[in-house]
Amino acid sequence: MMFPRREFLRMSGASLLTAAASSVAGPAFAGIASPALVGLKDAGARTLAVQCLRTGEKLKADYWVNGAYVPDALGALNRVLRDGRTGEVHVMEPKLLDLLSLLGRQLETTAPFHVICGYRSPATNAMLHAISTGVAEKSLHMEGKAIDIRVPDRSLKTLHDTALAMKVGGVGYYPKSDFVHVDVGRFRSWNG
Predict the structure, then answer these.
(1) Is residue 151 a contact partner of residue 100, using CB atoms and an 8 Å limit?
(2) Reported pTM
């Protein structure tokens, strides 16, 4: 099931989380009304399984149930996807979680996403930017809108090609570092 970029953006407009960029452990999710993507799971729930490689933490959560995001599940995902270097927690954009859910469906896998980097604090981003040209100075990781992943039961090339074919957000291919970057910014692609 492919979602053209225009359809994805149309359906996601009502679900954007407009929380401030400051770090928060327990954000208010009152502004989240409707799902960003429709029909991701017949049972009326969207489940996301992640394993953070930096901390070793694993989480499988139904983050959207019966037409609404689940605040406790979103909070748990925010904690697991925190900056693994500083421990700083930030709100992850629900549209990014929906993108991952759809990507898992497109890949026809139930394996957890192995997360190399979810949220990245400004301090961590500045440190990484100083030592690598592959780290953007104004990375979407700092806004909770980007994630670096791999999927254990799919090749990196398959993950990259599938994400690219969705034409939603940015897709970076980093075969030497063994991950694919996906984000919910404007559509673009690059090799790292």
Answers:
(1) no
(2) 0.78
